[in-house]
Amino acid sequence: MTTTAGGAVHAEGGSRRDFLYVATGVAGAIGTALAVWPLIDQMNPAQDVLALASTEVDLSPIVEGQSITVVWRGKPVFIRHRTADEIATAQGDKVEELRDPQSDAERAPRAEWLVLVGVCTHLGCIPLGQKSTDPRGDWGGWFCPCHGSHYDVSGRIRKGPAPRNLEVPPYEYLDDTRIKIG
Amino acid sequence: MQHTGFQSSSRFVQWIEYRLPIFGLVDQYVGRAYPAPRNLNYWWNFGSLAGFALVIQIVTGIVLAMHYVPHGDMAFDSVERIMRDVNQGWLLRYLHANGASMFFAVVYIHIFRGLYYGSYKFPRELLWWLGLVIFLMMMATAFMGYVLPWGQMSFWAATVITNLFSAIPWAGPAITEWLWGGFVVGSPTLTRFYSLHYLLPFVIAGVVVLHLWAHHTHKGNNPLGIDVKSPKDTLPFHPYYTTKDLYGIGVFLIILAIWVFYFPNYMSHPDNYIPANPLQTPPHIVPEWYLLPFYAILRAIPSKLGGVIVMAAAIVVLFLVPWLDTSRVRSARFRPIFKQFYWLLVIDVLVLGYIGAQLPEGIFIHIGRIATAYYFVHFLIVLPVVGWIEKPKPLPKSIAEPVLEAKAAG
């Protein structure tokens, strides 16, 4: 390191001017990053959007075999009151043979109620199967019309391009007939 | 590379430069290849500051537009949502609102710098004109932006300003209805103002490019107002003036931060936090501070059409300054009589600004009329006459000469 107009050369080999350059650059970079952060953060969900992040559902009007769709965070949530046959089928499946292995007990803590985020894990379409007249795929659960993914009565992927099972949202039972999603 | 004489040891830069000589262009405008006068003082910081302020307005504005809803029923609430719910929304909005004031403050200083040092004189007349065009578009943009929050001051500002056009004989009422998209200011007015408020800053940016181009053609003026005669008179723009401009931006940001964090609403009006009500006008209605001198001129004339014409003339006269000023000497440093009148003009404009903020009653009316009269006297009579009768002080032979003489003497 040669002596610059800025001043003396120090033992380590840097001049005072080098130090000032680096210090100025670092301060400028940190300042710019701090100034840019609000410009990025403003696109994150706003406080009023976050305030709508939980949904309560009354399960009592849903008869056995019926499905309903509720909205949570703007997404459809499927709630199916499963029949005894469906529960037996779902619980009888060999978990290790599945693409995304998960037992029915993990997905439905109370076996007659299945709660799923109704968004296909392939590219985000909404699978058919909520109405009794809908195509429900080869496993009697849901069928995604966009690219042909088949889900079983536990919402697990069985056939088609989707990589994962339909997501189970976080939810809890407030009492025997009411749940809170989110 | 042969176009600009730009040299680089980097193969990558050379590859680009051969095909698109952009590094050379930047080098010539703000780099080592720009031989800037060596004597530029801090008043020359305000050009880069104005550019920086424009960037702040565009960046914060684009972000605010992601949340704002341009509709008469929803605009006010969407602005309140920005203030309360959108992440950092309060900061972005306060930066945009106070940034507009800072932009005008910087541009006014920039204009008065030009008036003091004769920066509008040959060969920089078009440079001056382009600057005034930017100033006019800034006023239009600021006005339409002020309407967007759709509070009481927004609504009535829109009503009063658009009604200026109703002073036009015969066609006036048809023009105002055309501007409004209805029979009063309403949602259709708001949406078109929003569209134009988004558009105009980019037009301003385009005219800024022309402004810089014209500036570059004959290079900038300097405090002595004499031309660069030898390389001794210059310093490379980079690093000398890039560093100085960055320092100015630092000071600018500190002042902006003081406004934004400590006095964010000082320059606005509480009434604008009341939703627009077409059935009631606020008791005291004034424009933002940066339009007050023109507002005072408007009110000084006791005639609807006359007031509008005189106010427009107050800006038109600025376009004529390069020809109204008959002196060949640029800088006020060498013009003892002009310098005194210059400061009188500064005081006059400040008085007009003060009068613009007062209710048009009693003594304020008279002061406003005298100040308006002097404004025009200055440009239409003082400037040409002083140029003829004044004996300027001797000019230095070169920019470097006074410096070198002082060095030899010291």
Please provide a written account of the structure.
The complex is a heterodimer of chains A (182) and B (410). Chain A has 182 residues and is α+β, with helices and mostly antiparallel strands. Chain A folds into two domains: 2-41; 49-181, Rieske [2Fe-2S] iron-sulphur domain (Rieske Iron-sulfur Protein, 3-layer Sandwich). In chain A, 24% of the residues lie in helices and 24% in strands. Chain A is built from four helices and nine strands, in the order H-H-E-E-E-H-H-E-E-E-E-E-E. A three-stranded antiparallel β-sheet of chain A has the order 1-9-8, with no helix packed on it. A three-stranded antiparallel β-sheet of chain A has the order 2-3-4, with no helix packed on it. A three-stranded antiparallel β-sheet of chain A has the order 5-6-7, with no helix packed on it. In chain A, strand 5 and strand 6 (149-152) form a beta hairpin. Chain A is elongated. Chain B is mostly helical and 410 residues long. Helix content of chain B is 66%, strand content 1%. Chain B is built from 15 helices and two strands. Chain B has helices at 11-19, 22-30, 46-65, 75-84, 89-117, 125-147, 152-163, 172-180, 187-218, 237-262, 292-300, 304-324, 336-357, 362-389, 400-409; strands spanning 35-37, 234-236. Chain B has a two-stranded antiparallel sheet with strand order 1-2. In chain B, helix 6 (125-147) packs across helix 7 (152-163), helix 11 crosses helix 12 and helix 13 runs antiparallel to helix 14. The chains are: A alpha+beta (182), B mainly alpha (410).
